[in-house]
Amino acid sequence: MTAIISAAGVGKTFRQLKRESGLRGALGSLFSRTYNSIRAVDGVSFVIESGEAVGYLGPNGAGKSTTIKMMTGILVPSEGTLRVLGREPHANRMVNAREIGVVFGQRSQLWWDLPVRDSFALNRHIYDIPALRFAENLRLLTDMLDMGAYLDRPVRQLSLGQRMRAEIALSLLHDPRILFLDEPTIGLDVVAKDAVRKFLAEVNRQRGTTIILTTHDLVDIEEICPRLIMVDDGKLLFDGELKRLRATLGSRRRLKLEFATDPGPIALSTATLALDEGAAKYYLLEDETTSLIDVLNEVGRGRSLKDVKLEEPDIEEVIRTFYQNKATRQGAVA
Ligand SMILES: Nc1ncnc2c1ncn2[C@@H]1O[C@H](COP(=O)(O)OP(=O)(O)OP(=O)(O)O)[C@@H](O)[C@H]1O
Questions:
Q1: What are the φ/ψ torsions at residue 148 (nearest 5 degrees)?
Q2: Which helix (H) or strand (E) holds 252?
Q3: How is the chain split into domains, by residue range?
Q4: What distance in Å separates the CA atoms of residue 242 and residue 319, rounded to the nearest whole number?
Q5: What is the mean pLDDT, run by run of 10 residues, along the chain of 334 residues?
Q6: Is the pTM of this model over 0.90?
Q7: 106 CB under 6 A from ligand 1?
Q8: Which CATH architecture has domain 252-312?
Q9: Are 28 and 2 in contact (CB under 8 A)?
Q10: Which residue has the CA at smallest separation from atom 27 of ligand 1?
Q11: Homologous superfamily of 3-246 in CATH?
């Protein structure tokens, strides 16, 4: 694998004109201008390999969109070194545009009054996509995203879920090597979210397209991105696999043992009893390395065990613990 994106100490500071309220303030700002500095991104460093799917997660105002905008060349970093496909994104916007796809959940790139098909055709000319390649991609994407029924309808008539699928298709028509998505599932209902997630995971797996997405929705990360970058206040807090985050925080897997009849109390060394409902008993596995077989061996045969269910810790709980537990932050950064 090769690095497709690298960020070394990248920062972005916005300058915002400071205005006093009232007439005096308005008059004052005519003569002397003072500015507030907003440190949106604060020295982040990471390397993303070709073919990865990485989720950028953080609370409101954490610096996620600003980082995406720097990687796509819309914004210029105030400091640090940023390389996308070996180039400085803002200095090579035109060249880069041919190799990246961008989807902003909050902003449409489709032509509002034109049928979806026409926006696609316009992109074919903008990106100079060979006719055969375009026809093949259009057919594939229409199929995978189930867009056949609305390709000829104007964008303004589409539901949000339909529009988002069309936005994603538009961004992939020119076979970009990297797809950036800023909140791709925002505002979608459960069914539409599911369709978008499955599609993105497939594009990453089948086409090897590198995917970078920002989200507030933890299920997006769980279903699309094995790797997670967490930010807050512009700073990188965690970079690694979700599995490792769970292990770092010691979140425990939950095991449910269901017996045909109540076998009485069962104490185990491999798991801690959390709840005893007689025939159903719930345990917490303390150790990441404990396997289900270890536990079942300890439970022993002949106890009329009917069903076994092992649940991974809830991702929401893992992230909540992370943000609450500020003391572990520094140690968690790779
Ligand atoms: N053009 C701008 N001018 C001034 N400040 C800005 C600008 N764009 C973003 N900011 C500020 O930079 C900080 C980071 O914003 P950013 O949009 O990157 O956050 P985010 O993590 O994407 O948030 P959200 O989840 O709410 O979209 C915020 O404090 C925001 O107000």
A1: -50, -40
A2: none
A3: 3-246, 252-312
A4: 10
A5: 90 84 71 83 96 91 93 96 96 91 88 94 93 93 90 94 92 94 87 88 93 88 90 90 73 84 88 89 80 84 83 70 61 47
A6: no
A7: no
A8: 2-Layer Sandwich (3.30)
A9: no
A10: 60
A11: P-loop containing nucleotide triphosphate hydrolases (3.40.50.300)
